[in-house]
Amino acid sequence: MKKIQEEPVSEKELEGAKRYLVGSFPMKIDTYGKLADFLVQIEYYGLGAGYFEKYRSLIDAVTAGDVQRVARKYLHSDMNILIIVANLKEAGMD
Predict the structure, then answer these.
(1) What is the pTM of this model?
(2) pLDDT 10s per residue in the chain (94 long)?
(3) What residue spans define the domains of the chain?
(4) Residues 6+ apart with CB under 8 A from 84
């Protein structure tokens, strides 16, 4: 978390994330149930009726600076809890 706050993501990482988000978008709405859930989210967050049409351009507009700004605002390493789920015996922690 510190690294993403202090160093901008690389162009390769950013473009890979954008391709994933745009490419996986159709799977978010490939059933009536998923579509309904997505429409509820659009309404809840006030994204507007044209959100479907703007989605790709909104993703394309994200910059490495945007990622870093949001990481600085919302990622707080001093406020995280790490939870590990394991078989204690197998992990040697019994």
Answers:
(1) 0.74
(2) 889 899 999 999 999 999 999 999 999 999 999 999 999 999 999 999 899 899 999 999 999 999 999 999 999 878 888 888 888 888 887 7
(3) 2-79
(4) none
Query: Using CB atoms within 10 A of its CB, is residue 28 exposed (0-12), middle (13-18) or buried (19+)?
Result: middle
CA distance 11 to 4: 13
Cα-Cα-Cα-Cα dihedral sign, residues 70, 73, 78, 83: negative
